[in-house]
Design a protein that fits this description.
Number of strands: 5
Shape: globular
Bound molecules: 4'-phosphopantetheine
Distance between the termini: 45 Å
Largest sheet: 3 strands, parallel
CATH superfamily: HUPs
Helix content: 40-55%
Strand content: 15-25%
Strand order of the largest sheet: 1-2-3
């Protein structure tokens, strides 16, 4: 069975993430979306909330599961017997750091990284930008799944 991991913070998941996950799900028998647990980073949504949103928006694919991890991504991959990581590349500026991580991950435990070009519709998109724009009242409804847009609007109204 061919399996791959799509890792990230997903705070929150955007249409850019979803595009990569959906395309990866056509290439692999199973795709595990791995949410990084990073207690030192301030987040808008808890890991549980992110997992729940990811579960709902990826249910359409049928072969995508959601999990969380802390520590090294390669340890997560090895523990589950997965040797491929799929990452979206938005622009050449992503490449420098992504290449370093890919080489490090391969060097550490032989885990391969496959880069997938982001859909140009989403090449400017990031979770942090979505949060910033939404915080100041900008319209992000076309950039995140509907469910996420509702949760984001709700969260901002609470704060
Ligand atoms: O969505 P993000 O925050 O850009 O995702 C980054 C992520 C989670 C893929 C990356 O930070 C990561 O893999 N973190 C786990 C820690 C780790 O393995 N670090 C060494 C990388 S070579």
């Amino acid at each position: 069975m061919r399996r791959a991991v799509c890792p990230g913070s997903f705070d929150p998941v955007t249409l850019g993430h979803l595009d990569i996950i959906g395309r990866a799900s056509k290439l692999y028998d199973e795709v595990v979306v791995a949410v990084l647990i990073n207690k030192s980073k301030k987040s808008m949504f808890t890991v549980e909330e992110r997992i729940e949103m990811l579960g709902e928006v990826t249910a359409q694919y049928g072969n995508v599961t959601i999990d969380a991890f802390h520590g090294l991504l390669v340890d997560f991959c090895t523990a589950r017997g997965i040797n491929a990581i799929v990452k979206g590349l938005r622009a050449i500026s992503d490449f420098d750091y992504e290449l370093q991580m890919a080489q490090m991950n391969h060097g550490l435990q032989g885990v391969e990284t496959l880069f997938m070009p982001t859909n140009p519709l989403y090449s400017f998109l990031s979770s942090s930008l979505v949060k910033e724009v939404a915080t100041y009242g900008g319209d992000v409804s076309g950039l995140v799944p509907d469910l996420v847009w509702h949760r984001l609007t709700q969260r901002l109204a609470e704060s």
